[in-house]
Every structure is written in C-alpha cells, then in structure tokens.
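Action item from last week, closing it out:
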Amino acid sequence: VRSNRGVAGIDGTVSTAIGAALAHEREGGPDTPARTVALIGDLTFVHDSSGLLIGPTEPTPRRLTIVVSNDNGGGIFELLEQGDPRFSDVSSRVFGTPHDVDVGALCRAYHVESRQIEVGELAAALDEPGAGMRVLEVKADRSSLRQLHAAIKAAL
C-alpha cells in the first residue's frame, strides 16, 4: 500500500500510480507483471489527468487499474466541519467543486481504456484479466458519505 502526500493529496497522484505500477511490475517478472490498483477521487483524477500522457518511447504500465470514485466534486469536504448538514446550502458550492467532467472522454483523449461501472460491479471488474492501463469510474453519492464513515467507524 502506498499513498501520495497523505490521504487527501492530489498533486501528482496519477503520475505516482503510474510510477508505482512500473516499479511493482518488476516484482512479478517479465511474463507475469504484478497488478497495481490505484483508488482516487474524481477531483484528484481531473487535476492530474495529464499524468496519463506517456511519451511513445517511455515504458507504460502493463497492469494498472485506476479506480476513480466520482461524486462530481470534493466529497472529502463533506466529512469535515464545513460539510456539516447545517451548512449544506453553501458547502457544496463553496467546497464541493462540482465539475461535470466526462471522465471517459478525458481518458479517450489520452488513449487510455475506461468504462463506467456500478459499485456492485467493482470486485468483478478488478478480477478481470487485463493488460495495460485502464480507468474504472464508479459513480458515488456525496450525500451519504457522513453516514458511510460513521458506520465504518462504529464497526471498528
């Protein structure tokens, strides 16, 4: 497990995932490269999407899946003080950063395979054999993050 500048860092996250995948693949050997999965939010992905541009003479990961949790903005801020339901009338606009970016179109611009899946399809999609880089976009609902994190905390 690796993280980039903490759990809320965004700068260079896609690039870090690509570099980590290239390093990790060496562990699997030339015939069976190890698989790398990166889980990032939509703002992080959009912010660092230019990291998908790899020069034609540079090595490209052979087994990298980037999972983009897309809640159309900065869902992490829903978990902080400003995300308190009492401030919901302004917090989404000020902190949520809605963007409506078409993640698939962004991937196509960089010639990276992508598809949108439901959260219930994620485990099966991750088990699929695949080669190269791909992006799996999972739509998320920002309004349920506080309840989800509270349930996780209660279960620990």
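Closing note: The two ends are 20 Å apart (CA to CA).
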